[in-house]
Write the structure tokens for this entry.
Amino acid sequence: KGQTPLIFAAADKRLLPGTPGGIEGLMQAKDAKGGAIKVDVNAVDAKGNTALHYLASFGRGSSLSKIAHAAPNPTVKNKDGKTALDIAEERLASATGGTVKAAESIVSALKALPKAEAKPPASPTDFLKALKEQMKKEAGPSVVTNNSKEPVGLV
């Protein structure tokens, strides 16, 4: 799992709000036909961090507000077992002077995000059961069946 453009923009402290190639530009990107390009705000990098983790870590509240409408999942835990809110609260606990208010703002913004239900990854058995059920629903020319007309695979 590598860095997506959004994670790169969130993690790169040089890309300040409004910078071309920054988060605002990515969230407003259009394809060649003028349609909006879907940005996966819940993608994770090799450390398990999402863009929210980096925005919380670097105190980038204005950028966080730019991705809030795309439904980022604040319950995603990185490989250290921390959510973006955990990171923001750690940052707040160590904040001093002028950084306290910004850290409080980020904690508040993260707490305000709708909580998505964290689903554990499906086991291989569960995945195969779900695939079989889906194949039953969508049996068509791309589905291989056995003699009892039971779907058994995809072509």
About this structure: The helical segments are 5-11, 23-27, 51-58, 61-67, 84-93, 99-112, 124-137. Strands lie at 143-145, 151-154. The chain is about 40% helix and 5% strand.
